[in-house]
Predict the 3D structure of the following.
Amino acid sequence: MLKRIDVADVKLGMFIHKLEGPWLKHPFWRTKFLLTDPQILADLRASEVEGVMIDIDKGEDVAGAGGPRPPATTLRRPLVAAGSSAPSGGVGLAERVRMERLRKLVPERASGSNVVPFNPRSTTALSVGAEVGHAKAVVARSNRVMSAVFEQARLGKAISRGQVEPVIEDLFASVQRNPHAFNGLMRIRRENSSLYAHGLAVSALMIALGRQMGLDDARVKEAGLAGLLMDVGMGHLPIDVATISDDLSEGERKIVETHTTLGYEFLQMGGEIAEDVALVCLEHHERCDGSGYPNQLTGENISLFGRMAAVCDVYDSMTSDRPHRPRIDPNAALGLMRGMEGELDDEILDHFIESVGVYPIGSVVRLSNGRLALVVEQNVGEYTTPRVWSFYDIAARRVIKPEDIDLRLWKGRVEIACSDDAADYGIDDFPALREMVFNAACKALQ
């Protein structure tokens, strides 16, 4: 049973179900966790959160309310706040249940295998700065290929695996060398609104997500292929895709929604694309609560790749320019996605946030020293202390010479105060400034 309480009444042993207020205004990247760490409790009370929803069936109730107390064996390593340490000790019953649920969610995971985190010190790894150069070349090659593929699809010519597999191999190799560089580049580029640019971005996000979830390489590549081709049905619509906006009539909306079935049927007729890849065309707009289309599927009735694609598609759509609206900040997008309760698969969304970072590359943050900064690189395992380049003095309201700040090394001196929106400061041509700062950072960090 859920109960709303003031943050002052929160205590250890409670199961936090939801935190009130914007996701960006508190220090927790997961919103459902068993509270067992005193430091996390202190962080919660010091945050801007005024109230929380607790689940008294899974944890403690408020004092004197007679709620059940979970047996000691159910206390598990919490889904910790970003930057906090998990308590030591063995894996409890609830954690084993969660792991078993994940194994069911991801049946492709090999027995006994674990996610192998990105190791920036491995012989094949590259820094974001070094990999971005490769990523730009991949974008150029892939755009040429996908432009031709989508044009031939529009004309009804079947897509062969041989045409698109080189694109997937390029994307897979880039993500292997650095899981953040390609997706960071796609967030920064000013020209990222084309249909095939969206496919490239979603494909790379699917590959990074699949690796984070522990899928084997073959399945990761299939996930990437699914993301690359999921919108191929758009080319078969009887309207100009470039004119599609949020302000559609009901009839126009119904027409646009048919791109799911058109794409699925088109890939099926070609005969070279696997069924679970083609199925993503049909399912990437389905939602776990049944509110999606075209078939209002729910939960695990949506395929694994379909649930993964829903998350990646929403994120890239939010963080890309569209003819009818500008992009939003990557971190703000994660906050909005956290607010889509019931629509997206919670476990997959958790993995996704781990794969892109709590402050993804391209995010604008306000620092405790009164500067705005652009996130330019992730520090592996340090969710709240990325590498940033400051570019704007808030008090002076002026652009400044960018400064490289590795927040992992500046703990206690400079920290992220919150995410911010550069549009609120009237910065002239911020997209060009953002790209300039990012390119300068990449050059310096090679």
Summary: The chain has 14 helices and nine strands.
